[in-house]
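User: Structure tokens for this complex, please. No commentary.
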Amino acid sequence: MTGFSLADRLRAGETVPTGWCGMASPLVAELIAREGYPCVTLDQQHGLYDMPTTFAGIAAIRAGGAAAVVRIPQGGFSVASRVLDAGAEGIIAPMINTIEDAKAFVAATKFPPIGARSWGPSRASQLTGVHKGDYLKAANDAVLTFAMIETRTAIKNVDAILAMPGIDAAFVGPSDLSITLTDGRTLDPHSKEVDAAIDTIIAAAQKAGKIAGAYTATPERALELEQRGFRFFAIASDTAFLQAGASAALKKFK
Amino acid sequence: MTGFSLADRLRAGETVPTGWCGMASPLVAELIAREGYPCVTLDQQHGLYDMPTTFAGIAAIRAGGAAAVVRIPQGGFSVASRVLDAGAEGIIAPMINTIEDAKAFVAATKFPPIGARSWGPSRASQLTGVHKGDYLKAANDAVLTFAMIETRTAIKNVDAILAMPGIDAAFVGPSDLSITLTDGRTLDPHSKEVDAAIDTIIAAAQKAGKIAGAYTATPERALELEQRGFRFFAIASDTAFLQAGASAALKKFK
Amino acid sequence: MTGFSLADRLRAGETVPTGWCGMASPLVAELIAREGYPCVTLDQQHGLYDMPTTFAGIAAIRAGGAAAVVRIPQGGFSVASRVLDAGAEGIIAPMINTIEDAKAFVAATKFPPIGARSWGPSRASQLTGVHKGDYLKAANDAVLTFAMIETRTAIKNVDAILAMPGIDAAFVGPSDLSITLTDGRTLDPHSKEVDAAIDTIIAAAQKAGKIAGAYTATPERALELEQRGFRFFAIASDTAFLQAGASAALKKFK
Amino acid sequence: MTGFSLADRLRAGETVPTGWCGMASPLVAELIAREGYPCVTLDQQHGLYDMPTTFAGIAAIRAGGAAAVVRIPQGGFSVASRVLDAGAEGIIAPMINTIEDAKAFVAATKFPPIGARSWGPSRASQLTGVHKGDYLKAANDAVLTFAMIETRTAIKNVDAILAMPGIDAAFVGPSDLSITLTDGRTLDPHSKEVDAAIDTIIAAAQKAGKIAGAYTATPERALELEQRGFRFFAIASDTAFLQAGASAALKKFK
Amino acid sequence: MTGFSLADRLRAGETVPTGWCGMASPLVAELIAREGYPCVTLDQQHGLYDMPTTFAGIAAIRAGGAAAVVRIPQGGFSVASRVLDAGAEGIIAPMINTIEDAKAFVAATKFPPIGARSWGPSRASQLTGVHKGDYLKAANDAVLTFAMIETRTAIKNVDAILAMPGIDAAFVGPSDLSITLTDGRTLDPHSKEVDAAIDTIIAAAQKAGKIAGAYTATPERALELEQRGFRFFAIASDTAFLQAGASAALKKFK
Amino acid sequence: MTGFSLADRLRAGETVPTGWCGMASPLVAELIAREGYPCVTLDQQHGLYDMPTTFAGIAAIRAGGAAAVVRIPQGGFSVASRVLDAGAEGIIAPMINTIEDAKAFVAATKFPPIGARSWGPSRASQLTGVHKGDYLKAANDAVLTFAMIETRTAIKNVDAILAMPGIDAAFVGPSDLSITLTDGRTLDPHSKEVDAAIDTIIAAAQKAGKIAGAYTATPERALELEQRGFRFFAIASDTAFLQAGASAALKKFK
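Assistant:
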């Protein structure tokens, strides 16, 4: 695989499912890519991925024929530029609640004049086959920023966040939304409050001409959100695949 | 979990399914154990496990509440004693074709007077909670040797192999059986030739009063072999769980 | 071991010694746990622990029967939420000098409404056996925040820091105290200035109804501080155990 | 090798070339040191180095007879103090654009009264052979801070940044300079704009009595900058050595 | 890259240079592949490669567009089948001195009826895209065995070794030849004795219709041996590239 | 540290204690070396060391100022030559019971004309500073082979084993001796049978003019054996140092 693929697909209006990996095993990420996923996401926020496994994972995902996205730790904007240097095609940043958060996210991930990303994508250049001068020209468009909208504050600021140049997409975190919207009382990603917030987010994304994505526990939920305008979905995780498979085999046996 | 559990269960006539792990991720092995498997096997022959991941994997499996078994590389009898020192409760040895192979297997895995295993199970002692003197007394019974019967030669020698003191079980390798019984022409673990060999093996095991186990691609096949007297089964692998889950989720989505 | 144990013990007034590990070897941490320590702390600030070894270390400590605490790097609040997701029962944060520092610490480690911790404790849930909904209810109480008081500024703000909801404990860093209180002139964790600061800290903790802990080089010092009201102690480190043992053996031999 | 060497050489006016390593292989770093380099730099910003490889790399570089410097990720001041604890003799910090950036850099890397570095250099003490009390006295002089000047804003503030106590050196990042000075249009580290900026930087360094260093792709460029007053140079990278050697051998063969 | 490439090239009479890697860094191996090498060899005998780095290295080399070969440790025939399962296209076995050595090598690397390789190439199948049934049919031809001829005994037996079905190639080890031919007195891979042995080896290979390869320190030596009929060459190593580049840059600078 | 040191000391009649490491942490091994041990041994037989940790450990031990010895797995003669290539100064081989075992050990570890070790010590050359031609001349003397005498059979053959050129030393394994001499009934390294065997071994070593070493759990036992003529002692292990230190600190605290 050469070049970038994720931004092109999403900008063309395609729906893109992503594998979601937290187990810090590049081989697991590669196998998911090889099953035909156009994108695989490595989770550094709540998953066990860290820099070395992420660097190896990005290469493994590309070798498996997919685009790599990384969810960075909260506030980990410095991590964002490092994983872009390593060949990621997108960054999901948690808890982009304010204009300031969004600015910091853009600063770390877009080259001037949009942001202040520092130059050094030699590994990205090796993996994509995009030569260095071309990379500078292409990167601001080809590398996507997903701002996670997952708190009451973020909902309030969602229009301004998504309107900001350099923010390419919203990404819904339904579990945190359910917690913050109930002040910590309830964990229910399918609650009415979450659903209303999702409406607000998709409206803001469409108004700003930006992509909308979401973490969804199941393909069914993803299909429902696709109807409402979302295009990028985490449809299930490595842990879930493994646990479900192991559990089902054992049950058949018993 | 303290003490040993695998030998007790199998000697009591229980059927024991084992998870089968080749992906060299101790966390994957642990998650399978946590789904309720009484045993998880780490594969060093055709899987990607090596010593450090096996050492970590054995501890992870025990932390997940299961017994750990290791399939060693062909001829890797020295590896066998190392993984027993690290807390494994069973060893599956590939290609035990002759009396000499079986003797070398026993020598590496059983203490005198049965074999010549060298003393040093300090990690096993930590993980099982069995103190060192007790470990010496318990180990020859508590740690199981599975001789893989998977060639024409092994079938010929199966009675003598299984009669040998220190060999606790037969373990059928149906893919290699199908290849060797057809002189390399066919890979079909469910062929007539393989089925006939399986009859020979179970008969030999029952005659010798030894346990019979098999690698089975599916729970269905395992249930069939259970009817025929087998008690220890590799019912599916980490790779298979992951690929099947990832593939099914993608299909639902498309 | 299932569930949480550290908060219960300390809230019950028990004295809890913790092993202190900087060598980035999960096995070392596990062995210390197995010697009977109720708690083992992994040091990411001045020790060599990083995320992968910390993730593995937390699991190893729990397998060894103890609670895991992590000292995060200075300002590493994002790290704090990640290691809590991985199953830590406590976080020691260096250089909590101001109200702002304390707020950021609480935000990262407590769920709403106290803080703004993001949801995702799947590894913690596996390791503790506490199901996800229960984890949300339990975590704000069961997971402890230790604010390190180790500068002149922190001493000035100690009452306000410890009064803050979500800050569960003070933790004294005597070496840094001695340096900052002498403007860099002296390293003496047992100096008069440090002793006076310790008095201020314990008074503030007792006034706020919070736990008091300290790094102590020796069990003797820990016993002295226990008299003065402290309950959580780092009594010695992996490096110290190893160096002292190696040195003593060599001396006997010479 | 015992003690520190980098600060002494540079303060004595010597020119010091540094190897530049991004491949996250401590052995590669060690081999470069063994070729006679007085200094080897590990790159965590655009290279693949992370904490464990950096910790191992610092030890390997010292074993190879050289001083170790680390370029930290942007804003990674907490990382700076950790790698100093691990034995680094210098820190290169990217994007020191403002007085606030410079203050944060000094705070993390110099002990009081200059900064607020936290105490804990036990690994540094082991590797350098400098005992702990002596380390406290020596470190503020012996450990060098290199502030990267690589944006329009930084050029504007360069006098104030370099005048700050605790900032020991400027380090030019010519690629980022070329991008920021052309608002993202051009990548040309040898452009006129960059050259003019370099003049400004060297003038500021000389005025402040501080060291000047630069990343230079080639020994030739380094020699030119040496004429202009620079003394510390990254003259080529591990990746470049490897690619050039492999390419040349293949060409000879074809 | 899909499928196999090395055997096809060599059987078509092409000359194939191979990179030679001992530094146990898969990234180094990948970079050499990306410079255009059709083949990269990982050295487990005298290099620092072990199983996990070899598994990762094979995947990295394929991702870089080249075929992977592994030199196994002396007598490591069990390792041979494991690295073939992991996707290697060739095995170089040291010290194939006798018919028995050659038989053991073939047994481990060729499926029945030629050898006794055990079935399990799932990783090879993923990496090459060759489905499992096809792999069984293709492997005995597509995977190459290189017998190292590097002792007096081996020279004596070279005709019989190379005549054996399943041995695909001779590979000259000139350093060991020089030592064994002088009974340990001299290390000179270009000595007269070595040259005479090389004549014997190439004659035997041509008589048996087998490929001839050699370790050559330099492209110049490789070109000379190509004239004499050799087709597979290790023309330089990762360590040599790195040391030469680092040394040359430093010299220019001084 | 440059050159070799272990053989010189032992041949000069010095008593040499060795640290004994099984925890697979190179840093642990290095710390023990830094406490003043002239030698540190890495245990691959019953410890958790494997190749990558052994390679790193050897370098770390040398950096710490000591000579590195490796105990290889039983029958792991191929491992022996690899760790010598990596810079070890001695190899302890378990279960050298027969002349054939001893021959295989010598073959792997001594260059012609004594043995058949294959050439490739580039890492050893880097670490010791001994250039390659000199290494060939020096190695057979400078690198020591310790044959473990630990079974009834070995006792019977001990004179012939120790008389063999290329076998430099006997090394007593008292635990296995106690087990084999009682046919598996007793584990008592201080039994009368073991003591008598020790007398036989020291007599054989002195007759053959070879060094005698032993694993001893305590410095006290080592001093006793020194009286009887032994000169090389494993006086305690990393695990023991750590457990004893942790346990003692906890006791003081309670």
